[in-house]
Every structure is written in structure tokens, then in C-alpha cells.
User: Fold this.
Amino acid sequence: MMELVNVYNSGAALVKQIAETELPDQALALWALGQEGFLVKWKKKTILFDPYLSNWVYELSGPPWSRAFETPLEPSDCLDVDYVVCSHHHEDHMDKLTLQAIGKSAKTRFIAPKAHLPLLKEWGLRDDQLIGISHGQALELENGIRLEAFAAKHEQFEQDEAGEHKFLGFVASFCGIHLYHAGDTVGFPELVTWLQSRQIDVALLPINGRDFVRNEQGIVGNCNYREAVEIAVQIHADLLIPMHYGLFPHNDENPAYFVDYIQRNYPAKKFHMFAPGERFIYMK
Assistant:
């Protein structure tokens, strides 16, 4: 049985750190939660992107989908989060157990592709908790927070019968700070075009890649480390944060390849590698 790796910060200590983190207007705090899960705090508002805080994939599919490290936060630690944003319905991004638990919160609202709202309702989330979003749509949230959605290619575009994209990425704007959370996607020219005018400060992009062996196992792929770096360079992102690595060893890429590529080709490009549960503060 694999021994789970200790995380940087977790449990009550992490909950306390999140609550006590105070920020000026031109700063964001980010906590890495594993896979593509990030908690973002601006002023006193919190947004949770793609939280996978359970062992739901393993419970559904068994080996080899074991977590390489424990979740830094439990779903019950997240009942004070303002928004949960899900990029698409794969269990490590739209996690039924996590969302049902956070759904007990009286304040949290859940934002997801419109194509997946019926499933979220099946899971017990209420209409008044749910906000659907489509490719090209922007939502004005609280206190100057804006969320804009862009279609993602989880190898391919997928749409439902109504034409709603099933895979989305998001640009979250916080009064002049622009964060892009790619969800699961490969690189494609339109994505660069859409993002070039958004003045992205922080770009979170997957790096686990794709290959024939994983495709044969039904594992849908993402950007590899080269694509992630080149996208960040072409959209002029100030800071690149790689994600979607380290949690499932059989669907992974060595992050050292990412570091080597960016250092060899773009040594002036800023990036940050997270430890699970780590806090990082970005100042504009």
C-alpha cells in the first residue's frame, strides 16, 4: 500500500491560515489543493476552483486511482467559501462527494458549465445555489469580481444537444488582477487569440500531457509542459503556474521537464511550483 505524502499545510492550520490571510486590493492569495484544485482569496472573498477533496475517483474505479497525497482540506472545511467553480464533469474536477458536502453551506454558490447543471441537480444541489455559464459569457459577481468562460478542448470540443460546451476554462478578474484557470485543455490557436486581449497576470495550465497508452485506457489528455509554457508566453502571462500533476502517478508528467523547458527557453518567464497546501501571494 502506498504511503501518502505529508502536505505543506493542512486541516485546522490551513483553515486558520486562510481565514487570517489579509490582502491589499492589488493582491491575490492562492492555495494549491491538488490536481487542478485551487482556493483563491481576494480581499475577504474566496473562490474554489475544481476542488477534488475526496477519494471519489478511487471509490468509483479502484486501482490505480489512489491519491499520492492526502487532501489539504476536507469538504467540511469549505462551508464558508463564496464560490465553487467547476470546469467540467470529470470526477477529479466536479467531485460529487466534495460538492454535496459543500452544498450544505448556506452561502456558497456553484458555477459550472450549463451542460452540467442537470447532473448537479441530481446530486442534490438546489436551483438557488447553481449558476450556469457558457462559452463567451461573463458573470459579474460580488465586489468587482468578474468571471468569463472560454471553451476548452479536452483533446476535442464537446457540446451537448443545446450547443453548450462541456469543457470550460475561466478568466477571473479582481479589480485589475486577471487569473486564468484553464480547466482541462490542450493548446489550440483560438484559445491564445481569446486570451491575448485579457491581460492575464496569473495563468494556471495543466502539464500532464497525453499519449497513446493513456488514450487506450480511456484517459483524456491535456497540454504537455511545452504547450503550457508556449501558451503562457503567447498570451503574455506575467506568472505561470503548472497544475494537474502529482496526484495520480499513472496520469502524470515529471514537473522537472517543465522547469527544464522554461529555464532553457524562457529564463525570464516567472513561474511557481506549488507544494500541496502551500500558500502563494501574488502582488500586482
In short: The chain has one domain: 22-283.
